[in-house]
Amino acid sequence: MQARLLARETGDLSPDETSTSVNADLLRSFAPAPQHRFNGEISSQSALEETEERAHNIRAHGAGVSGLALEKFDGRILVSGGSEGSIKIWDLEEASAPNTRHVFRPVSTIARSAVGKRGDGHSHGITHLSFYPFDPEAFLSSSYDKSLKLWATQRSALTAEFHLNATIYSHAMSPIADHLLVSCATQHSNVRLVDLKSGSAVQALVAHGGPVLCTSWSPRHEHVLASGHADGKVRIWDVRRAGGVIAQLDQEDSLGLVHRFRHATASGADWSRMPHFRASALAHDEAVNGLQWTDDGKYIVSAGLDRKIRVWDAATGANTLASFGALIQNQHAKTTAMIVTPPGLSSSSELLVWPNDQEILLLDLHDGTVITRLRSPGTTNPVGPRGGEMGRNRITTIVWRGSGGGSGQIGTVMGGGNSIGAIYSAHLDGQIRAWMPQIPGPDDIDETDEIDEDEEARRRKRKAVDSAYRSLMGKQITFTGSTR
C-alpha cells in the first residue's frame, strides 16, 4: 500500500490506476461482517441484549428472507421481503463505520395482508424486489399472490398494483429506457409486460417453453430484452416487433452471428432470407433461472439448473466458453440473483458474485477462477447434504453496495456513503448477512470469536472450568480489584 501511494505521489500511477489497484485488493479481501446485524423481530432492547451474543437469534424476517433490493443512488436504502409477505425498509447509513458494531432496525414495515381481506400488502411470500431505475423514491415488489406492486419508498405507501393471474417469479425494468415497461417472469410460458404509464398489462411475448424464470433488459438498447425459460432456452426479444424473438443463445455456437453472416455471404447465400439462429438452440441443458447483462452491455451471463454458468458475447451471441467448474450449485427452480462487478472497478476483469447455496463465490467472469469463497460463520460444509439447519441457512438472494449502491456506477470507486463496498445476502433462516472488505482498524471484530457458537455449549464449558478450579483449589476463587 505504501509503495502504491508513493507511486501515486511521484506520478508513476494515475489516480484511476491507483483506485483500480486498491479495489482489486479490496475485492479479494471480502469476509463476513458479523458486526452488522438486521433485527426485524426482537422489539425490546432488553430482549435484544439477552440474545446479542447469538447472531442466529436476531432475524430480519422470522419466516425467512426471500427478497432484497438496494437503491443505487446513495446506496443507503435496503428493502427486504419475507417469505410470509411482509416488506421492511432499512437505512444502511445508521451504522457510523464499517467496523463498528451495529444492529439495524427497520425504519418502516409494510405488513402482510390476510388472504381475502383488504390491505395494501402482499398476502403471500415475496418473490422479488427492485428499485425504480431512475428514482430511489419508488420500488417494485412481486409475490406468490400473483401481483406486482409499486410503492412510494418514503411513505411505504402503495401507488399502483397489477394482478397478472400467474405467479410472478421476478420482474425487471430497463436501466436506460424512456418507456416504463416492467417485464415479468411468470409460471406461464409468455413474458408479460406491464406498462406503469398506462397502468395495465399491455403485452405478452409469446413463447412455448414452460415457465419463464428470469428476464433482463439490455443496458445499451432500450427495447431489447432477454428471457430465460424452463426449456433451457434464452430468447432475445425486440419488444417493438410483432414477430417477437430476434435471437436465441446456442451453447454449441462459439463463433457467433458474424461468422455465420460471413459464411453465408462467402457461399453466395441470401442472408436476408436465412434464419439467423437455430429454433432448437439451447443455452442450457435444463431450465435457465439466471440472466444478467454486464453494465457495458458487452456480455450476457446465464445460469441454469444444469449447474452451468455461461458467458455470451452480446454482439454476436457467441458462447465464450468460460468455464466455472464443478463447484457451482444451482438446483432451485426460482430466479437466482447474481452480480457482475462494473467494468473498470479493478485492474483485472469483471468479477461474478454467485450465491452458491450456503456460500458466496467471487469468480473471474471470463476464466472462471475462484477469487474468494465467503462462508457464513458456523458453516463448515456449504456444499454438503441438504436439509436440516444447513438447508435453512441457504442464500435466497444477494445485492451489491458499490459507489452509489448499485452495480451501475460510473468510475472506479469501490464504496459509497460510509461504505467501503459490501454484499448483503438474504437467507432462509431469516437473517440478512453483511460481507465487507477487511480494513484494519481499532474496532476490528475477529470472525473466529465464536459469535455463532451455541450458548448452551458455552455455559457447559464455563461450568466445567469453574468446577475444575474448585476441585484443584478446594474452594471458590474470587478475583477482586483490591491489593494489599
Give the arrangement of secondary structure elements.
Elements: H1 2-10, H2 15-28, E1 30-32, E2 36-38, H3 45-50, E3 65-70, E4 77-82, E5 87-91, E6 102-104, E7 108-110, E8 126-131, E9 138-143, E10 147-152, E11 157-163, E12 168-173, E13 181-186, E14 191-195, E15 200-205, E16 212-217, E17 224-229, E18 234-238, E19 245-248, H4 257-266, E20 288-293, E21 299-304, E22 309-313, E23 339-340, E24 351-355, E25 359-364, E26 370-375, H5 388-392, E27 395-401, E28 422-427, E29 432-437, H6 455-473
Parallel strand pairs: 2-6
Antiparallel strand pairs: 1-29, 3-4, 4-5, 5-7, 8-9, 9-10, 10-11, 12-13, 13-14, 14-15, 16-17, 17-18, 18-19, 20-21, 21-22, 23-24, 24-25, 25-26, 27-28, 28-29
Region (Disordered): 1-20, 440-465
WD repeats: 58-100, 119-161, 205-240, 281-322
Biased composition (Acidic residues): 443-455
Features:
alpha+beta, 484 residues, Methylamine Dehydrogenase, Chain H, 6 helices, 4-stranded antiparallel sheet
Offer a quick outline of the entry.
The chain is α+β, with helices and mostly antiparallel strands and 484 residues long. The protein has one domain (30-43, 51-379, 389-464): Methylamine Dehydrogenase, Chain H, CATH 2.130.10.
How would you characterize the overall build of this protein?
There is one protein chain. This protein has 484 residues and is an alpha+beta fold. β8 and β9 form a beta hairpin. It starts with a helix and ends in an 11-residue tail after the last helix. The longest helix has 19 residues. Helix content is 13%, strand content 32%. The C terminus is likely disordered. It is globular and about 90 Å long. It has one domain: YVTN repeat-like/Quinoprotein amine dehydrogenase (Methylamine Dehydrogenase, Chain H). The chain is built from six helices and 29 strands.
